[in-house]
Amino acid sequence: MCLWVSERSHYLDELIRFEGRGRVHHACHACGDSDAPYRCEDCFSVNLFCCSCIITLHHNVPLHRVKRWQDGYFHSTTLKQLGLRIQLGDHTEQLCRNPKPARDNDFVIIDVHGIHEVALDFCDCANASSHYRQLLRRRLFPATSTDPRTAATFAVLEHFHLLSFESKVFAYEFYHSLARRSDNTGIVPIKDRYSIFLRIMRQWRNLKSLKRSGRGHDPAGVDATQEGQLAVLCPACPQFGKNVLDDLTDVSPNQRWLHSLFLAIDANFRLKRRFVSNDIKDPGLSHGWGYFVEEKKYKAYLHDHGDEAQESACVSHSAVNMADTKASKGLAATGVGSVVCARHDMRLANGVGDLQKGEKYINMDYIVFSALSTFSTAPIVNFSYDIACQWHKKLWQRVSSILPLQLQPNHVQTTFNFFVPKFHIAAHIPACQTNFSFNWTPGVGRTDGEAPERGWADINHVAASTKEMGPGSRQDILDDHFGDWNWKKVATLGMSLKTVLIKEAIKAEKEHRHALAELEESVQQSDLGAALLTTWTSEVVAWELDRSKPNPFESRITAVTQAAVHLKLVMQDTQDLENGSSVSLHSHVTPSILISTGLDLEHAQRRLRADNGNLSQHATNEQHANTLARRNSLQRQIEAWTEIQVLYMPCVSQLRATESSCPQPKPNSARPKDFQLLFPSDIYDFATCDPKLLQMEWSLRSAQANDALDECRSHIRLRHQLLRFKSRHLRGQSANTRAHRTIQAVERRLVLSHDKYSHARSALVCLSRHLDRVGWDRKLQVLKKSDLRPIGDLGGLTQGTAIMSWIWLTHGISSESHDSEGLQDSLRVEWCKTRARHTRWLEEIQLLRVEMHRVLAFFAWEANCWDKRATLRIVDRSEDTEGLTAYAKRQAAIRRALSAHFSEMWSNVGVLVSAGLDDGAEDWEDNGPSIDEPPREDLDEVD
Question: Which of 55, 117, 802, 836 could pair with 797 in a Cys bridge, judged by C-beta atoms 3.0 to 4.6 Å apart?
């Protein structure tokens, strides 16, 4: 850039030079005529020409922009004004004997260079083709098939088509940029053909989809197109009858998982549609031929069946269920539901449908099983859904009772598994995190289930424009974008599969294999011995085969809660009374009840302080009254408690009377929220206290800290899910304000739980010095604010350097008598997870190699299909036959070229897998295309 700056003035001089004629001699460059005022702005040549020569030069390029030198500068003019006429028809170097000018000699052509008014003549000879065919044969797309007066060049349609995919540019901005290229001053009015351009572009998209799918080669014609037939299929997925045999009976049972189908389900509430137009005024051009379900059948199904309310039993779904209450006023669709290939991020045929209000099961069931209907022979189907733990309940009851018969799968012959995507699962309850985890389930490799999120990031850019479209236009546009997304994925499969295999899977499998070996060696050398590994292996295998068996990934050491400790102490008091050994100094309040009640009062003070701090400056009288009533109630409870406290801890009276010797300031504060309760842990350094009270407080404080950690984890999961829901689905000030208030309420609860834990731990630090307790702080560490993050949050660090927050590694506090059992339990859980990680990477390698074989087999099948299409349709004219044959051959050649390219790219895969990982593989670089930077090929080369 610095070098260019030094030459910038010369660049500017050259730009200004083009404002003049650029040379001393101004004669016509073709004939030498001295009167040569014309120059073309779009030709490579910048020479001047006379009027007759510039017309002659532009008979085959009639849409170039021409300028005329006059009054000392160039003026814009047109070839139409100079007398150029565009003659259509099949005349070869001959003038048409019967030309027919366009009506009123007014014809507009939209091109990449701008919007042009031209003089155009149709051929009106006896054997001439229809006017719209004459235009099409000159690569001009007519606005109508009857008496057209506007057309768009194939070049501008292809240009906008690709531009809309890559930059998601709106048609309005694109069309008006063409208008500004024609005249950027507004002095010369440009004829408005924007609505016509929209209609032409929609027809163009539809024709390109039909062409690429081979519908032009079918003797039955376009109307015989079947549902889902225009979709671009995933070559790496098991397409039964194409790249996988329909009958898998010869495949051994332990290898059937390699032919599993992985489907990811999700909803997108940004792809809304307002109540604009209707199906009659704006019908779709694809009647379920692409990615959307067939609209009439779908609406009839929704009309005939209601939906029952579904309550979530998982804490994480309070945010997801908010979708059912989303504002739908003025909206024909609040979003779309979708099913995609979970491993390769590709949309499935008939796997998209509109949602009328929220993510209801009745909608999602129909969409899911519409997409699944083409995979009826799949042996195993793995569903990934962020609410799979709730959706799968009563699924088969709903399917058998209300789903159309043709969509009902054979759930007896096919095995269905349900998972929660890896990023979402952190917000679920612990039971869901093991029962629906990709990480701990065999036969899934390293599938993460988050494929829909990647696709939404791409398609969300068109949400603003499709929101205002009619039903047919919107579905056609989205179908086309989904098709382009799939094609880009197909074109980059070679590099993406190799990258995952070489850069990730082989290396990770080796690392986890060594980690597992080291862990097993340490277990074998310990007192536990190798027999324990055999037991653990049996437990894991049994659970993998039958989920009703005990889950080996869950800790079996029950955490001690504050309520459980309280119950245990009360039972001990009961036993002491029966034995006559009770030392209770009060008829109703025993020492354990005193400490337990004191902890409850301490938490009530904490909540009152927080609520006082959250009162606004303009709080209502009712809010002030409620706060005052709580304060008075707490004051009375504290007074009653302190009267009994003196019986068991007489020294507190003297400490409160003498503030200088009190361990905490203001022990007699008049405000109940600041009154110091003075537990045994607070005063033991300053006065004597019954050691039994210390023991009781230790037990209750330990359990209180454990309860507080559980609360923190629950609040973090809920906050995480609310934030994700707000970011993904909520738009508008009112919706975001309501969500922000909810998130703030959860945040306040998290702060309270954090404060509760910190106070409990501080008390444990004091008590441990007097009770000689050691080792407890390994499980109950100092809780920093930076530790209050979800499992997937790396705290600003990278995956390789981050350490998971310790709160997710603590599963309660085991009693001291079970330390060895607790250690064994922790080792078992860690060994199961380490084994599962290694097994998943080993499966990933196997899956990737099978997918590579499927890709090559699919390309061979597609090439063979195009070979057959070359002669499938019989037409009268030889030129039409040649076009059909040529296109089929080109498409077959593209598939064979992709197959050859991928085969060469994967040629050393077998060696690398066998070797584990060689030196060359570690230095291998990915210099190929990716989905973020897809191949910038001309669209016609792959259409």
Answer: 802
Q: Strand, coil or helix: what is 153?
A: strand
Is pLDDT at 380 greater than 90 in this prediction?
yes
C-alpha distances in Å from residue 59, one per residue of 62, 85, 96, 197, 568: 6, 8, 14, 25, 100
How far is residue 481's CA from residue 476's CA, in Å, rounded to a whole number? Answer: 9
What residue type is assigned to position 832 of the chain? C
Angstrom distance (rounded) from CA 25 to CA 34:
9
CA 813/CA 822 separation, integer angstroms: 9
Percent of the chain with pLDDT over 70: 85
The Cα–Cα gap between 113 and 153 comes to: 10
Q: How would you label 772-802 residue by residue, b for 16+ Cβ within 10 Å and e otherwise? A: eeeebeebbeebeeebbbbbebeeeeeeeee
Contact 79, 125 (CB under 8 A): no
For 683, half-sphere exposure in the C-beta direction (CA atoms, 13 angstrom radius) is: 25
Is residue 676 within 8 Å of residue 602, measured between CB atoms?
A: no
pLDDT at 131: 93
772 φ, ψ (degrees, to nearest 5): 55, 45
Whether 117 contacts 182, CB under 8 Å: no
936-to-15, 723, 781 alpha-carbon distances in Å: 30, 36, 54
Q: Are 419 and 388 in contact (CB under 8 A)?
A: yes
Integer Rg of the chain from CA: 37
Q: Which value, to the nearest 10 degrees, does the dihedral of the CA atoms of residues 638, 643, 645, 651 take?
A: 120
H or E segment to which residue 416 belongs? strand 415-419
Looking up tokens 């209609």, which residue turns up?
Answer: 199
Tokens of 22: 């650029």
Angle between helices 691-729 and 562-579 (to 10 degrees): 160
**Spatial distance between the Cα atoms of 382 and 605, rounded to a whole number of angstroms:** 50
Q: pLDDT digit string (tens) for 665-695?
A: 555 555 787 888 888 888 877 777 778 888 8
**Sign of dihedral through CA atoms 649, 654, 660, 666?**
positive
pLDDT in tens, 870-907: 999 999 899 999 999 999 999 999 999 999 999 999 99
How far is the C-alpha of 590 from the C-alpha of 76, rounded, in Å?
101
Pick the closest to residue 294 from 232, 227, 361 (CA basis): 227
The two three-digit tokens of residue 590, written as one number: 């025993």
The answer to whether 678 touches 697, Cβ cutoff 8 Å, is: no
Quick one: pLDDT at residue 807? 73
Q: What whole-number distance in Å separates Cα of residue 152 and Cα of residue 190? A: 15
Cβ pair 342, 234 in contact under 8 A: no
Name the residue with tokens 């309310």: 309
Residue ranges of alpha helices (H) inside 269-393 are 295-304, 317-320, 361-372, 388-391
**Minimal CA–CA distance to 233: which of 334, 371, 415?**
371
Three-state SS letters, 531-586: HHHHHHHHHHHHHHHCCCCCCCCCCCCCCCCHHHHHHHHHHHHHHHHHHCCCCCCC
Cα–Cα distance, 940 to 943 (Å, whole number): 5
- How far is it, in rounded angstroms, from Cα 49 to Cα 28? 4
Element (DSSP H or E) covering residue 173: helix 171-182
The pLDDT tens digits of the residues spanning 554-598 come to: 877 665 565 665 566 566 666 655 555 455 556 667 888 888 888
Q: Cβ distance 453 to 338 under 8 Å?
A: no
Specify the pLDDT at position 921: 44
Euclidean distance between CA atoms 111 and 594, whole angstroms: 87
- φ/ψ of residue 719, rounded to 5: -60, -45
Burial class of 439 by CB neighbour count within 10 A (0 to 12, 13 to 18, 19+) = middle
Which residue intervals of 772-818 are DSSP H helices? none
pLDDT in tens, 821-842: 655 776 788 889 889 999 999 9
